[in-house]
Design brief:
The protein has 13 helices and eight strands. The protein has about 325 residues and is α/β, with parallel strands linked by helices. Belongs to the AB hydrolase superfamily. Epoxide hydrolase family.
Amino acid sequence: MEFPMKGVEHKYIVTEVGNRVHCVVAGAGPPVLLLHGFPEFWYSFRYQIPALAAAGFRVIVPDTRGAGESEIVEASDKYMWNDIIGDIVAVLKGLNVTEKVLVIGHDWGAWFAGQLSRIRPDLVRAVVYLGFVPYTWRAQLTLVEDLRLVFGDEVYIHVFQEPGRAEALFAKEKTSSLMLAFLSRWSDDPQLRIPKVSSDKEEALPDWITSADLQFYADTFDKTGFTPSLNVYRNFKRSTELNAPFIDKILDHPSLLIKASRDIGYLHISNFHTSLDPEEILAANKPQYPNLQKVVVIDANHFMHQEKHEEVNKAIIEFLISCPPS
């Protein structure tokens, strides 16, 4: 496959357990690690990679296990949080990163950014959370159950739990149309259901997605399928149980939260704090995130780093430059 972005290197790191992880690397300077969410891979940070490299950072963007160009691990129970963290640590080691990293995470990437901070604080210099600051749910009420209580049985994350169910729904649609529905309007649904593709007419592209972008997303997921990424969701309960020892750990790295005003999921769950007032959010998170320095609220949907990339990049770069050296 021909990659659409120039000026970056594509690296492949083999982990200690033998699977191959793909990552994109650009720029030189203090290392910045970008962690994507669902349904995404490295290309979702196409607006951040050149901006951060130009600002004087070494940008590292791995594909989550089984996503993008990373190897698909066939065993469905090998997509737990700690498996993903193990891959991330292997990437840093394989790229000879010897200093602490600045971490930026979106969607479940924010979750993994928090998880990396919990179990390997020695590797982390500061964190930017795109969407929410993560909580480790207690085993008796996982994120899946919490979302189901709020949004009902058709909420996306509940549908994702049954092997094959979401895949069958996705297979009915053209992948490019499905991706456009996810990226442009999924978080507008007050019940956070899997988005329905408009069948009567072709949807217009928002100005932050080109036809080439959409085709690259579609070609990539047509190759990998969605099952590997869905397996991350299917291991949430077991991951929650295994991470019980870290549940109350204070995350005291310097951190920034960038929150989207139209991201429905993060506005209706108490653990994510439903307020859009930065001071209220700071106060609510102070006990577990004592060094959360700033909250920026942007008028955007779930995929804020694409939709409002200039605003997001400005906030990220200003924060990273302000961070004390490791």
